[in-house]
Specification:
The chain has a single domain (about 45-210), classed as Lysozyme, CATH 1.10.530.10. The protein is globular, with a radius of gyration of 27 Å. It has helices at about 5-20, 45-55, 60-80, 85-95, 115-130, 140-160, 165-170, 175-180, 190-210. The protein is an all-alpha fold.
């Protein structure tokens, strides 16, 4: 081999070394072919919410289930609720059926009356600056319905400062509950107990899986 050939080989080896040093080593896993690192996993709390929603909406698309799960987490955090309480309300109200409609006219996942939804819709826009081209809320849209439902439950909690009374008011109406309180009558607790029992079931499931 001539001196010239040895110089060419040495030069090519130097180029290969420089290229290797310049390439990001974090793209490699030790002992394997070059692969990109895995994407970051969703937060554990979101995964637990997702598991409940996925199990209750087996025919929904993955993108819809993730969007609903994220909305539940975001709105629960915004209004200082445990997201599993919101899941429990949805389960009791509609069993996660986004087109559910009651004989009284309540609609959607969290079963909101249209006349109440319009007031909540306007209040949210004023308070949070929600950007929308809609003049009225689409209660069959689960994202919109959850946002309004959690906002409504929070407003009831602010009014009564008691979770059990807020849940009763969500089902029976705040006027009916306040009337019973003023008349020193017992406030019905059957709906509240169903929600709280469902909530405790979700929490037990989380503890067992965690």
């Amino acid at each position: 081999m001539s001196r010239f050939d040895r110089r060419v080989i040495a030069f090519e080896a130097l180029l290969l070394l420089l290229a290797f040093l310049a390439f990001p080593t974090k793209l490699f896993k030790q002992g394997k072919l070059p692969v990109f690192e895995r994407q970051e996993q969703p937060p554990a709390e979101l995964l637990k919410i997702y598991s409940v929603v996925r199990g209750s909406m087996d025919k929904a698309s993955e993108s819809s289930v993730w969007a609903i799960s994220r909305t539940i987490l975001q709105e629960s955090r915004r209004h200082s609720f445990d997201p599993f309480l919101v899941l429990a309300v949805i389960a009791v109200e509609s069993r996660f059926q986004h087109t559910a409609a009651s004989p009284a006219g309540a609609r959607g996942m969290m079963q909101i009356q249209p006349f109440i939804a319009q007031a909540l819709f306007e209040q949210r826009q004023s308070l949070y600056g929600d950007k929308t081209n809609d003049e009225a809320p689409d209660l069959d849209n689960p994202i919109t319905n959850i946002k309004l439902g959690v906002f409504y439950l929070h407003s009831l909690w602010q009014s009564f400062r008691d979770l059990k009374l807020a849940l009763a008011a969500y089902n029976y109406g705040p006027t009916a509950v306040q009337s019973r309180i003023d008349g020193e009558e017992e406030v019905p607790q059957d709906y509240t107990l169903r929600v709280l029992a469902t909530y405790q079931g979700y929490r037990r499931g989380v503890r067992q899986s965690g």
